[in-house]
Design a protein that fits this description.
By secondary structure, this protein is an alpha+beta fold. The chain is 42% helix and 23% strand. A 7-stranded antiparallel beta sheet has the order 3-2-1-7-6-5-4. Helix 1 packs antiparallel against helix 2. The longest helix is centred in the middle third of the chain and has 53 residues.
Length: 546
């Protein structure tokens, strides 16, 4: 039966409980909330000692706050117990609602587990209602989804008795509010950490962007950013000062173009074949004045964000000086150093480029079903390819669009061919002997000039070596080739002024005809032999005249 004082005691306890619960939501951090929970048990629920064990991400529980005893705090704070040991404790003892009471008669089995614990000192109880120093009372803290967030362990009630119904209810009410406060504090803490991490990431991103901006803007070589995909694919959207200076164009003007708009027409294929990711190319870009500069392009793909648009970053390096040096070396390797004409190797390369190794007739309008019959008409070694547009002779497949070089027969009007005029200077050795090699070199330079002036722009005049020259000219008939040889001989005969004196040289020409199936060497030997035949013939005529 309830005494007259008990309602007043309960009312005072409710006020005290309300006061400590209200303080739970005033803590500013998770650590403050934990300590407030432990302090509230001691100050508002009538226990002399309380510890809050917090569940860590890996599952173990650590003593996060202790109230009521500095010695207990120094002995327990920061120590952890395994989740298995805690689950064992919460599954044994007496159920007081959500609370778990483990009397000393059962708790002795827990003395050797890894859960940090503290027992107050005192005499053994004389009655069952008295609190034993080895008794354990645990208040689990559950979140709204019934996930365990922590456990409050209490010890040594001030009145020395085990909690009654009202004391148990008050502890249970307090633990439910404490669980809410801890969940909220943990959420705030996680949000604060996330905000700090986000701010750090944004700060690092800003620093990275600024670093990229400075590296981009002040790079000593050209750099550009272009769009990838969409209607504006390839359009330049960002250009640094170095590239603007290299092309003598303003950044605003450059943003109207893509590289394909300003690349040399001969290099457009190179640009289109250049890979976006890690691609490299050497090509020419147009300056504002219409001239071109050789550059090396190096591509890489960058993303604005993790899932954002992708851009093409292109590094543009000026290689004009290197290219000029390479072209100079290539020209020296393929041209005569004295006259500037193509040398013997270059002539053979150009001539070989016009000749296929073994010509095959090209027949059009032949149905695939008739190939076997047509094949028989050409005899062994000749057969058609799979398309029916060309003929394979021996082992070589020839391009049906190749225009075979064939020597004119001289009997068919209008026949044209690829003529090779072999020129040997007459009397050149005597000039070297009488006037020296400097005079001889000057004669060779003038002869080269006169030969070049006497042919078409697409013809080739080459120096074979010594006093021998070769003219390679296409699209002439036999009579036209003879006329050209006469004109060139007449151009060489007039005196050549060297150091105030006039010297003369003659010229003998031999005309050969190039045809597919011949080698370049065979064509040149043929023209050389005809030149010697002509020279001997003229020499005999001059002796008879004398």
């Amino acid at each position: 039966m309830e005494t007259e004082s008990e309602p007043y005691v309960r009312l005072a306890s409710l006020r005290q409980l309300h006061r400590v619960v209200s303080r739970l939501n005033t803590a500013r951090s998770l650590a403050d909330t934990l300590q407030t929970v432990a302090d509230g048990v001691v100050e508002g629920l009538g226990f002399e000692l309380a510890a809050v064990n917090l569940v860590r991400p890996e599952g173990d529980l650590v003593v996060a706050a202790v109230a009521g005893s500095q010695l207990a705090e120094s002995m327990m704070a920061g120590r952890a117990g395994s989740r298995a040991s805690w689950d064992r404790r919460l599954s044994m003892g007496e159920e007081w609602g959500d609370l778990r009471f483990i009397p000393y008669t059962e708790g002795w089995v827990l003395d050797d587990d890894d859960v940090p614990q503290w027992h107050s000192t005192g005499p053994a109880p004389q009655t069952p209602e008295q609190w034993h120093p080895m008794d354990r009372l645990l208040a689990p803290l559950y979140a709204s989804d019934h996930e365990l967030v922590g456990v409050i362990s209490v010890d040594k009630p001030r009145n020395g008795r085990r909690p009654g119904a009202w004391g148990r209810e008050a502890l249970q009410m307090y633990s439910s509010q404490a669980a809410i406060a801890l969940s909220n504090a943990r959420l705030r803490s996680n949000m604060q950490r996330a905000l700090v991490r986000l701010e750090r990431e944004q700060s690092a991103l800003r620093a990275s962007e600024e670093s990229f901006r400075q590296a981009f803007e002040y790079a000593p070589s050209g750099m550009a950013v272009a769009e990838m995909g969409g209607d504006q694919h390839g359009r330049l959207i960002r250009i640094n000062d170095a590239l603007c200076r290299l092309l003598n164009r303003s950044a605003s003007a450059m943003r109207r173009y893509s590289f394909s708009d300003i690349v040399h027409p001969e290099d457009i294929g190179t640009l289109l074949r250049t890979s976006a990711e890690g691609g490299r190319a050497e090509l020419r870009l147009a300056r504002r004045d219409g001239s071109y500069v050789w550059v090396s392009l190096r591509n890489s793909v960058v993303a604005d964000t993790a899932d954002g648009p992708r851009f093409l970053l292109t590094h543009v390096e000026d290689i004009e000086e290197r290219k000029r040096h390479e072209l100079h070396l290539a020209h020296r390797a393929s041209h005569d150093s004295l006259t500037g004409l193509p040398n013997s190797a270059e002539l053979r390369a150009r001539l070989s480029g016009r000749l296929c190794a073994r010509p095959g007739p090209v027949i059009s309008g032949v149905a695939l079903t008739d190939l076997d019959e047509v094949d028989k008409g050409f005899g062994p070694g000749f057969h058609f390819d799979d398309t029916g547009s060309g003929v394979i002779a021996g082992e070589g497949l020839y391009d049906p669009h190749h225009q075979h070089a064939v020597a004119p027969s001289g009997t068919v009007p209008g026949e044209k061919g690829l003529a090779v005029l072999f020129c040997d200077l007459d009397g050149f050795k005597s000039i070297n002997d009488r006037f020296g090699h400097n005079c001889g070199d000057a004669v060779l330079v003038e002869v080269a000039r006169r030969l070049t002036a006497g042919v078409r722009d697409n013809d080739t005049v080459a120096r074979m070596g010594g006093d021998e020259f070769v003219v390679l000219t296409d699209g002439l008939g036999p009579a036209e080739a003879q006329d050209l040889a006469v004109r060139l001989r007449n151009a060489i005969i007039p005196p050549i002024r060297v150091d105030g004196r006039g010297v003369r040289v003659g010229a003998s020409f031999g005309i050969g005809w190039a045809g597919c199936g011949m080698t370049a060497e065979e064509v040149l030997q043929s023209a050389d032999q005809r030149m010697y035949v002509e020279k001997r013939s003229r020499s005999k005529g001059q002796r008879r005249a004398g």
